[in-house]
Amino acid sequence: MKEELFISGRDIPNIDPYLNIWHWEIPVYLFLGGLAAGIMFFAGYFTIMRKEKEMQATVKYAPMLVPFALVLGLIALFLDLKHQLYFWRLYTTIRLESPMSWGAWTLMFVTPLSMVWAASYMKEVFPKWDWKFKFIDQIIDFFIEYRKAMAWALMILAVILGVYTGILLSAFNARPLWNTSILGVLFLVSGMSTGLATIIWMSKSKYERKVLSRLDLIFIAVELFLIIHLLMGFLAASQVQIEAAQLFLGGEFTVIFWVFVIILGLIFPAILEILELRGFHIPIWIPSLLILIGGLVFRYVMVEAGQITRYLY
Amino acid sequence: MDTKIGAKKRPVYINPYFGGLLLGLLILASFYIAGRGLSASGSAKLAVVEVVHLVAPEHAENNAYYSKFLPEDGSSPLFNWLIFGAIGTFFGGMLSGAVYGRLGKLRIEKSPKISNRTRLIAAGAGGILFGIGSQFGRGCSSGAALSGTSAFSFGGLIVMALMFGVGYAFAYLFRKLWI
Amino acid sequence: MRYAMAIDTKKCVGCSDCVVACQTENNVPNGYCRDWIVENVSGSYPNVEIELKSERCNHCDDAPCVRCCPTGASHIVEGGIVMVTHDECIGCGACIQSCPYDARYSHPDGYVDKCTFCQHRLEKGQNTACVDVCPTSCLYFGDIEDPNSDVSKALKNRAWKVLAPEAGTKPQLYFLT
Predict the structure, then answer these.
(1) In chain A, how many domains are there?
(2) Which of B91, B159, C28, C108 is deepest in the core (most CB within 10 A)?
(3) Does a structural domain hold residue A18?
(4) Is the previous residue joined to A17 through a cis bond, with omega within 30 degrees of 0?
(5) This prediction's pTM
């Protein structure tokens, strides 16, 4: 037999019997961060490609959601902190070795930038909008001049934000499920896919939906590829990683992962999008909603399962 | 069958006899894979048990009717093949409807002579009666008639016969809802 | 000056005096502990082996908790001791996620807490509470860079191991086997 016990009777809240100190707030924040990154990236990309006229929802309407998504994500993050009164300490220092510090500062720049972007399109989206103060009009006009520069900044910061949501988890080498470099790219691609799904849902132009659906199919394919390789990588690594992968291949998260994340969250929406591209009429909210739910469940499962995996005990 | 369509042309339905054959094969497959019949009755019942458990946990656990469906290890009664079968049915039906042009706007099907409200109230009342009846008869049209008769259940046969027979007999009284 | 601790697993009896002493000395809240006893039983009768270890924060050389702290609240002080500045900690839990030894916990007051090698006692020239109170004297503490310290002498002629060396943390708690 082989037995390992805490005979001093350790039962620390949130640490025993297995780590569960991060709850729903972190997956929600990772989801909203990825979504915002996806929308911002394509808003910037299509602006630089000078396709603003054809891709109105991408460039104008969807970015209106981004400030809300980011602020809600930050609120979720704030709620997760246990020493909330000291949250401002995050902004008194930059620690380059800590992905959490990276993320705090990236969000610090991305949130106002996304608000400025959304503000610069306010008059086009709401024709009767009045800023009420002349100097605001002047500032907005200034930013409209520099839209291309903002688009580049938006794209770069969006990629950093998307990758950060994955690197945040992969930097914790004590959690074998997270400690893989694929996670950074995987969360970026997943974020882009959810962003595309949102824009497709909001779009009113058939051409735009077609272009974005094609892009979304590519991203879904890449995401499936990365997930398969994530699991293959775990099965070929050390014992703790093999056990981590077993959580998804016969363990407690098998059903949720394969049904809600892979089948209903990736494969089935991809089939529906392919059918839509071939001319069958699919109500557009169905694949988009499934992709969004799949993205949220994926992050929830990764955070929950990751905390269960460990090197010791 | 005309398959190159959007919602504008007439929706396409499969030959009913062929459809019945496929459904029978599906029940066989269901018994082979899961050891039990199709999931419509069971999933509705598990959903009810879960809701009661959420709202009044002690009542659900002490009641002979509900407690049979609450797993011992404390996991949700929804974590069951039946629920996933029902989810799959929903999305499979949606896929079939999308490909064959049956997916249109969300609409209420009724006689044009009555209001939406009347139809919905009638649907609600019928649903309640059907729910009570299905618990007496241990199955609905899917559970008793399909899965039940395929297992040669005499009770299922009686439920099915009376369900359709009584429905047929009383249909005249409710014709105004439909024509 | 590099503090380290050696635990003689052959002498530890699992009495948990070190656990209680630490809780008393450091005002650890009820239900929490900064150190704990792990018992490993292996083999089958009559060849059963028991290994008892008194574990705590390993004050690693390459501490992942210090690396991933976004505010710098987790830091290393003189002697290689990993400490947490309570006023700088935001309670994000990143350090808890990054510790392979589950040595940290979230204090009810909000900040993250853990074994501090009783730094307040070391400053006064005393030993850590657990070392002082151990009835079998199985805990050795001192400056591992000093060849005459208790811990160096304990490590000299005995086989030892560290926990989870594959996690890459270079822990400074040595278990004499």
Answers:
(1) 1
(2) B159
(3) no
(4) yes
(5) 0.90
